[in-house]
Structure formats: structure tokens, C-alpha cells
């Protein structure tokens, strides 16, 4: 019997259920679990998961069993027991470079599906090098970046390619806009990654040596430069996050995306002053985070585990426009939702776990992206959950208009 069909005590186990995003994801799961489902929060300090379990029992009336598990990133045996007890493990415990690897290793060894919120490229690359082969052998699906990094961009690209002629070369640009503020977890993960540029490059090089390369296809990302986008009537700021890597790896795994695939990733800004401020801030931040006292001072602005006030979240939104096309067709699509750092990230993470646990997904194993591991099922799930995927325009291309 394969690990995916072997009986496990729990369908989903969540580490970090008492943190800001973890609590939102736990409540979302409890409210939407199918009848008879089995859920368990896990943590090092038993008092906190117990409080989380009591809260989830009040929310999830249809959940058959809400258990309680002990998990400590410094005690691999506890993580092995968690992985062996679950069909899917969710973790919101970051920074992942600091806390994440033991759980990935445990899930890969146990054949247990795993999802997280990491936006740390070095972590994802190191996990591929160290644990992808084991997960392939056991059948585990290791899916990183299952929140705002990078589901809207990865599934937005998948949705957009569906609007284009099959097997055409495709060039896309993604443009994200939001009025959201950053959460503590995102800030601390970002600070940690920016402070390790050489380690990040080494991890990426190590992964490239192992990853298979496509034959007869060219798949790439392009950073680009600040410029005016006439389609959106907005300024584009290059955005070097983990999202372009995720989109590129989805394209690598899907030959149907055509003989050529190029993606560029940007933030959108209405005013040129915003562009100038963003570039100046980036130029100042990179050397600052190399100095530990300055990095700690920046981190104290938003403590880890905290997010914006709930009343601000109610007024917050995001859009990701995916533009351009291929095969003689130009298209503009848009992914849209509410607060990307709070409700929508928790929703994306929880739906990723539900999709892996219950949907008949394409056969895959090892480290995978949301598009390759879940694809069409996640598009449906997120649409049902209120995250929109919309075709804004589609027409036959006459000449390139950028």
C-alpha cells in the first residue's frame, strides 16, 4: 500500500496554529473540512496547541477528530511521529531557513505531503538538493510557497496559458498591485534571505546541477528594468521574489506550455515617485541587512507572528495581472482577492492542504509547484473560495505593445 493510501490518524496536521497566519489557516480548515475529517494542531508548547484545539472544536462542528501532537524542530523524532501520523502536514513556522528542514526531511522520509508559506529561495533550493530524491521514492509531494508567494502568480500563469493556442511559445509578464502591509513572518523571512546573498547563489547553483533540463525547449525568467506599462497605465518595478522561479519550474514541468516560455515579474506603481522610492529603499536595504544590529532593528518594527490590525485587513486588496501571450494571441488576465498577507494567504495555504488530501490530482512526487501538483483543482478551489481568475481581454496580436 502506498504512503498516500495507507491509513493515517489525521488528514491534516498544522504546525504554527497559534501564530498569526497559522491561526487564520486553522480556523479556515476547521470551518471547511469535509464530514469525518481529522485535524490536529501540533507544537512544542502543549498549552498553546491545546488552546488552538479548543477554539477549532468550537468552529469545526463537522470535524470528526481534532487531536493534539507534539512537534519540536530541535527533536527530529517528534517530527517523524507527526509526519507518520498525517496525510498532509502544513507548517507556518519560519523563518524556514532556521526551522524548516527537519520537518521537510521527516515528511519526505514518511511519504507525507507537505505545504508551507516560504518565500525563501535558498530554503526551497536546499530542500530540493537534500530531499527531492527521497520524496520521489516515497511518493511525498513537497510543495513550497503556497501563499501569496507564489500561488497567484503560478496559477495565474497556468490560467493565462489556458487562454492561448496550444503548444505556442509564450511570453508573459506578471504585475502585482496591493495596498497591503507586510506581516512579521514575511518581514523576518525576507531579512534573513537578504542577509545571505552568497549562500542563496550557492544553493541555486547546487540545484541547477541536479535538475533535469528540457530538451528542445527554452524556459526562462527575465528581470527587466523599471518602465511604463502602456497596457496597465502603470510603472513596473522589477520584483526579484521566489515567484518567478516557481512559475519557471511549472513551465519546465509542463511541455504543453510550448517550445519557449518567458516570464517577468513586477510590482505596479501609479506614480514615478513610488518607483524612485522603491529603488532607493532597495539600494539602502541590501547593505543594511548585512549588519546584524541593523537587521535586528528593522525586524523589531514588526515582531514575528504579528500581522496588521483586523480592521485594516477588511479594506485590503490585491491584483496580479498576467499580460502578453503567444501563438498570435494577446491576452490579459487578472487574479484578485482581499488581504494577501492575512485572509487570502491563509486561504491559499489551507486549500493547498485540502487539495492534496482529497482531490484526484495529477500523479507527481518530490518537490513540486502548486501548478504541477494541483493545477486545475486548485484553480477551482480558489475560485470557489472567492479568489477570482478573470480574462480581462483577449485579441489577435497585430504588433507588440508593451
Write the layout of secondary structure elements.
Elements: E1 10-15, H1 20-32, E2 38-43, H2 47-59, E3 65-66, E4 69-70, H3 76-85, E5 86-91, H4 96-99, H5 101-110, E6 113-116, H6 121-138, E7 141-143, H7 151-161, E8 170-178, H8 184-194, H9 197-210, E9 218-221, E10 227-229, E11 234-238, H10 243-253, E12 260-269, H11 272-288, H12 292-299, H13 310-313, E13 318-326, E14 329-337, H14 343-358, E15 366-368, H15 370-373, H16 375-384, E16 388-396
Parallel strand pairs: 1-2, 1-5, 2-3, 2-4, 5-6, 6-7, 7-15, 8-12, 9-12
Antiparallel strand pairs: 8-13, 10-11, 11-12, 13-14, 14-16
Helix pairs in contact: 1-2, 1-14, 3-5, 5-6, 6-9, 7-10, 14-16
Written description of the protein model:
There is one protein chain. With 402 residues, this protein is an alpha/beta fold. The chain has helices at residues 20-32, 47-59, 76-85, 96-99, 101-110, 121-138, 151-161, 184-194, 197-210, 243-253, 272-288, 292-299, 310-313, 343-358, 370-373, 375-384, and strands at residues 10-15, 38-43, 65-66, 69-70, 86-91, 113-116, 141-143, 170-178, 218-221, 227-229, 234-238, 260-269, 318-326, 329-337, 366-368, 388-396. Strands 1, 2, 3, 4, 5, 6, 7 and 15 form an 8-stranded parallel beta sheet that branches. Strands 8, 9, 10, 11, 12, 13, 14 and 16 form an 8-stranded mixed beta sheet that branches. The mean pLDDT is 86.
Binned strand content: 15-25%
Q: From the helix content, strand content and strand pairing, which structural class follows?
A: alpha/beta
Q: Count the E strands.
A: 16
Overall form: globular
The termini sit apart by 53 Å
Helix tally equals: 16
- Spans where pLDDT lies below 50 across 5 or more residues: none
Largest sheet, if any? 8 strands, parallel
Averaging pLDDT over every residue, what do you get? Answer: 86
Q: State the share of residues found in helices, binned by percent.
A: 40-55%
Rg estimate, integer Å: 21 Å
| Quaternary structure state of the chains depicted | single chain
Amino acid at each position: 500500500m502506498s504512503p498516500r493510501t495507507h491509513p493515517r490518524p489525521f488528514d491534516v496536521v498544522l504546525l504554527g496554529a497559534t501564530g498569526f497566519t497559522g491561526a487564520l489557516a486553522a480556523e479556515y480548515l476547521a470551518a471547511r473540512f469535509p464530514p469525518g475529517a481529522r485535524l490536529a494542531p501540533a507544537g512544542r508548547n502543549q498549552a498553546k496547541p491545546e488552546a488552538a484545539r479548543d477554539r477549532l472544536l468550537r468552529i469545526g462542528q463537522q470535524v470528526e477528530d481534532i487531536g493534539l501532537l507534539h512537534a519540536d524542530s530541535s527533536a527530529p523524532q517528534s517530527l517523524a511521529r507527526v509526519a507518520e501520523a498525517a496525510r498532509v502536514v502544513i507548517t507556518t513556522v519560519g523563518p524556514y531557513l532556521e526551522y524548516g528542514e527537519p520537518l521537510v526531511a521527516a515528511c519526505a522520509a514518511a511519504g507525507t505531503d507537505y505545504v508551507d508559506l516560504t518565500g525563501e529561495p535558498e530554503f526551497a533550493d536546499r530542500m530540493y538538493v537534500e530531499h527531492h530524491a527521497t520524496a520521489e521514492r516515497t511518493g511525498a509531494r513537497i510543495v513550497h510557497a503556497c501563499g501569496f508567494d507564489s500561488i497567484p502568480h503560478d496559477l495565474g500563469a497556468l490560467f493565462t496559458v489556458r487562454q492561448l493556442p496550444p503548444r505556442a511559445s509564450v511570453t508573459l509578464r506578471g504585475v502585482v498591485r496591493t495596498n497591503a502591509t507586510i506581516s512579521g513572518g514575511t518581514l523576518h523571512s525576507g531579512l534573513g534571505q537578504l542577509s545571505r546573498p552568497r549562500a542563496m547563489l550557492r544553493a541555486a547553483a547546487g540545484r541547477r546541477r541536479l535538475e533535469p533540463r528540457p530538451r528542445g525547449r527554452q524556459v526562462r525568467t527575465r528581470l527587466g528594468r523599471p518602465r511604463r506599462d502602456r497596457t496597465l497605465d502603470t510603472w513596473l518595478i522589477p520584483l526579484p521574489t521566489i515567484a518567478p522561479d516557481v512559475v519557471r519550474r511549472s513551465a519546465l514541468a509542463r511541455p504543453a506550455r510550448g517550445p519557449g516560455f518567458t516570464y517577468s515579474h513586477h510590482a505596479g506603481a501609479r506614480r514615478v515617485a513610488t518607483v524612485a522610492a522603491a529603488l532607493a529603499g532597495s539600494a539602502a536595504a541590501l547593505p543594511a541587512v548585512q549588519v546584524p544590529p541593523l537587521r535586528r532593528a528593522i525586524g523589531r518594527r514588526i515582531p514575528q507572528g504579528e500581522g496588521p490590525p483586523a480592521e485594516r485587513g477588511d479594506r485590503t486588496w490585491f491584483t496580479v495581472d498576467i499580460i502578453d501571450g503567444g501563438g498570435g494571441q494577446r491576452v490579459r488576465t487578472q487574479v484578485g482577492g482581499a488581504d494577501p498577507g492575512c485572509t487570502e494567504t491563509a486561504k491559499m495555504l489551507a486549500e493547498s492542504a485540502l487539495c492534496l488530501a482529497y482531490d484526484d490530482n495529477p500523479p507527481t512526487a518530490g518537490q513540486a509547484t502548486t501548478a504541477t501538483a494541483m493545477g486545475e483543482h486548485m484553480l477551482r478551489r480558489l475560485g470557489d473560495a472567492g479568489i477570482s481568475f478573470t480574462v480581462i481581454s483577449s485579441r489577435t496580436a497585430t504588433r507588440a505593445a508593451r
